Amino acid sequence: MLIWAAGVAIAAGPGVTGAAAQQSTEGTPGEALLARADSAYRAAGTVRALFSQHVENRLLARDRSGRGVWHLAPGSRVRMEYHDPEGDILVADGRCLWIWEPSLQPGQIQVSPVGEAGGGRAPDMIRAMLDEAQRGYDITNAGMDEPGGPGGTGAARGQGEGPWPTDRQSLRRLVLEPHGPGRYRRIELWISEPDYLVRRIRVEEESELVRIVALSHMETGVAMPDSLFRFDPPAGVSVFSMGEPCG
Predict the structure, then answer these.
(1) C-alpha pair distances (Å), 171 with each of 59, 132, 143, 211, 243
(2) Rounded mean pLDDT of 138-145?
């Protein structure tokens, strides 16, 4: 599966808030940068960007790439519309998460609840990773990366894991390493300055999947109609519920 929605362990709600955000700001350089990124993302409201995504399955020695347009609105509403592969789509309306990948399974749509209740998933990849960072990680501010590539000086580890859009801005790399066993072995976030928005994500999972997402041409505070976050299954396509029914 190319489309990425985080598992039930990650909440769909806000991450660092209130006293926790203040404590992180006064902590290590990595914690301070994470707190700034969290605050900037919560303040952004709606977000629209181009995305490029790469998934590598090391066990099967297979990989897939995709690109398209990403929309986010408050209330756990997300739309990831793929232009390559054409037609693949993820839509979250705040209650239900719809995933249709006609490039792989044209006759099947998956629907699951959003959030932790009922075995739900978190459709917002950036929010999910910012929340995940609060669950027991060593957080390191790895310094500035040069513009371009999947992370400038941090690209050696991900060479060939593209193609990537870029706004040519310098990015600061944040490295998260878990205290113990869990779903993720390593998370890397590339954060732009001076707006402190997350522009790239690289995740190594215990399942030997490596997932990378890069965002470019990011706009915040964009007007978005509610219809953008509605999904009507096409006639003749089977809908399979994952977890408890939603809607």
Answers:
(1) 31, 21, 8, 19, 38
(2) 91
Long-range contacts of 156-161 (CB under 8 A, 24+ apart): 157/202, 158/202, 158/212, 161/54, 161/56, 161/202, 161/210, 161/212
Distance CA 235, CA 107 (A): 10
| Residues forming beta bridges with residue 203, ordered by sequence position | 187, 211
Which of the four CATH numbers 3.10.50.40, 2.50.20.10, 2.40.160.60, 3.40.50.300 does domain 18-241 have? 2.50.20.10
- Which is more confidently placed, 162 or 56? 56
Question: How would you class 178 by CB atoms within 10 Å of its CB: exposed for 0-12, middle for 13-18, buried for 19 or more?
Answer: middle
Q: Where are the domains of the chain?
A: 18-241
Task: Return the ∠ at Cα 181 (arms to 160 and 242), rounded to 5°.
Answer: 80
Q: What is the dihedral sign for C-alpha 86, 208, 218, 227? A: positive
CA atoms of 92 and 79, how far apart (whole Å) = 6
pTM equals: 0.81
Closest among 134, 158, 138 to 148, alpha carbons compared? 158
Q: Are 103 and 84 in contact (CB under 8 A)?
A: no
Polymer length of the chain: 247
Q: How far apart are CA 185 and CA 211, in angstroms?
A: 12
